[in-house]
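Batch 3, record 17
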Amino acid sequence: MINVTESILVITLLSVLLSLGSTRLIALVKIMALQGIMVSLTPLFLRGDDSLGSGAIIFFQIMILIKGLLIPSLLYMAVKKIAIKREIEPIIGYHASILVGLVILIISVFITSHLRLSLPAGHDMVLITAITTMAAGFFLMMARSKAITQVIGYLMLENGIYLIGTALTKHSHTLYVVEFGVLLDLLVGVMIMGIILHNINSAFDDADTTLLRRLKD
Amino acid sequence: MDTFVFSLTVLLAGGLFALLAFRQFSLMKAGYIALTVSGSLIGLYAIKVPLVDGTLVTFSITWLHLFTLSFRLDSLSAFFLIPIFAVCPLAVFYSFHYMDNAAQRGRVAVNYFFLTLLIISMALVATADNVISFALVWELMSLSSFFLVMHDYQKKTTRRAGYIYFIFSHVGAMFIFAAFALAYSYTGTFDFLSFADIPGNIKIIVFFLALVGFGSKAGIFPLHMWLPHAHPAAPSNISAIMSGVMIKMGIYGIFRLYANLGVTDLIFGEAVLTLGIISGILGVVYALGKHDLKKLLAYHSVENIGIILIGTGIGMIGIASENMVMASFGFAGGLLHVLNHSIFKSLLFFGAGAVLQKTGVRHIDQLGGLMKRMPTTGKTFLIGSVSISGLPPFNGFVSEFLIYYGAFHGLTLGGSSFIFTMLAILSLAIIGGLAAACFSKVVGVVFLGEPRTEKAAGAFEPGFTMTLPMILLAATCVVIGVFPEPFVLAAFQGLKSIKTLHLVDVNEVAMIVGNLAFAARLFLGVFVFSVLIRKFFYFKKEITEGATWGCGFTQPTTKMQYTGTSYAISIVDFFRPFVHIRTNYSGISRIFPGRTTYNTRVDDIAETALMDRIVSPVLYLLAKLRWIQHGHIQLYIGYIIVTIIVLLLFI
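Prediction for the assembled complex:
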């Protein structure tokens, strides 16, 4: 029998590696949509046989809507609107990035076993995925020069934080409220970054963050 | 308390009205003034009961389910609320003609809104009854006044002044919070009244930490640096409120903390007295050395805070040595001077604002002859000047007399108290003399003589909303000076909140004040009589008028007049080790000398010391770290990761 939770986590991990290796922005946005949906689904299957309250169901629906649809479409619009000419432009190359991703994976397995938390069965896998996602998000922010990739790295980081929350906490209603607040922040953050991206683009004719160096005093 | 809260609500409604109605400039100003004045009048009515019979009124609200914000209106609070509710509406009224640039109506509306916040937060500071509510409203007060200073934010000097003020007010607030935190760690409650339970040596630390904080707000000498920057930068009605009312909140903090700690050690009195002496003398000396009208007034605030602290220090020494006559009169003089200073300082700032608005210059050596062109402004300014110099029959004399009276009672003490009391009397005398010298300089150079520039020659009297507050304040100066009894008794009533102080009998106070009032009336009578005699003798005689300083010259020039520098430099020179005077003089070398230049400037030693000893080394060190800011976003994110990892490892 296929364990649904583990399949979801594997897909998440694969999406992380794929995003590290992807050369095209549009592809990256699509991967993020997939990752967002997977991450939002994880707690649903992790809960096992507890019954879901109606509030939780509405929450998960909104969550999937925002992470899987709304934010990716905002990103998609941003990519189209500012018509990024050159694609991702890595500071660290694609193959090296994937290698780093694998190293991060190993380290997070090590960290998880090292922490020796008394987690319920299956939750340690979530924790591994969470740490990997988070670290990869950070890496993506540092290793790419386009401003939009930074936004995507930030989203990935938030996915990782959400997964950590899922792995470490008992599911109670208040957790969703907090997560929902974070989600709104994220949404607003993406919108603002869209505006900033547009401004960077019009000021420098490119959304390359290395050009921002000129702004320092 | 209901009336009090209602008055604050009316004030807040005024501020919101200004924001909403800013498109109709005059309507906005008129509505705002109406609401603020009525709110303040209600506030004055609300504090009447606690001030007269000392009943307490309290109210509290819960905030964030965790904290209780409680407020308490006792007689000390009520006394400090008088200047807030009396001076602020006048300053608001004054702004009708002062802020007359309709192009900036949005900015004026924002200014009004923050002014409302400032008034409300000051009223709440004076009534806050626990640590949390005090910290909250104190911060609100600092921030709203910061925005008021930044009114002309397009000017670079204004921004600089605003940032200096911001830094000083927040460093000060940090010290106050540290003091509160220390107190909390011993008492475990947020209540102010529990401060009495702290162990004695901790009380000393708490008091002095808070004294730094309150001192930076009040403008005690080494912490006064924001005053001469912020007051010239802010609009004049704002300077009047900040200098007349807001800095008194620092004094209120010292009074309140002293009352709550219930300490009777000698060290508190001696420290406060010493700070008062230093601020008083150096404040007035720097005021003599400065020739920017508003900067000069700012230094006079430092001086008057010094006088208030001298009174407070005398009071504290009196309590420590159980000489209650000395204590009562010292505290009462200090407290009454709070009220008096708020009256004549706002009057002087209103006058300075009128001069500034009509001439556009702040440097006194470019003015002159304004008494003929702006008679109301000139005469009220003169009354304010005489009051601030502490001369009878005006109000400054009354409060300084009370301090003198307390101090002379302290001369019976032995040991160090005797020396401190003696020093207090001497420095009060010096301060009074120097203040008179300084204001004879200001009035002489600005209002008398002949105009030195075209701008001064073209000045005329400002609108009635500007002159009316000045007339009212000048009248108050005279009223307090000639009929001081109710005001002195109000100050004594305010002191009832200090539990360690056993006030002297009311009849004794009434007798002394009665004698004082009689002397003031006699003085006024002599003055009026001599004016009448002069009129009588000159009646129907031919009087010819020539140019001022004409002195029989055929070609008089305005340059023959005394300048501010030439008048004051010899006095300032006397204090040279404490005052930096920099002189540039090109010298005269030939028989027919070429163009000669001479200029002096007086630098504040506290400011130069801060720049040389603290700011420059810190800047030097920080410049070495500039490579951290390189402009790579990717590496900035790296910093964040490194920080998180380090924190995870160590915590």
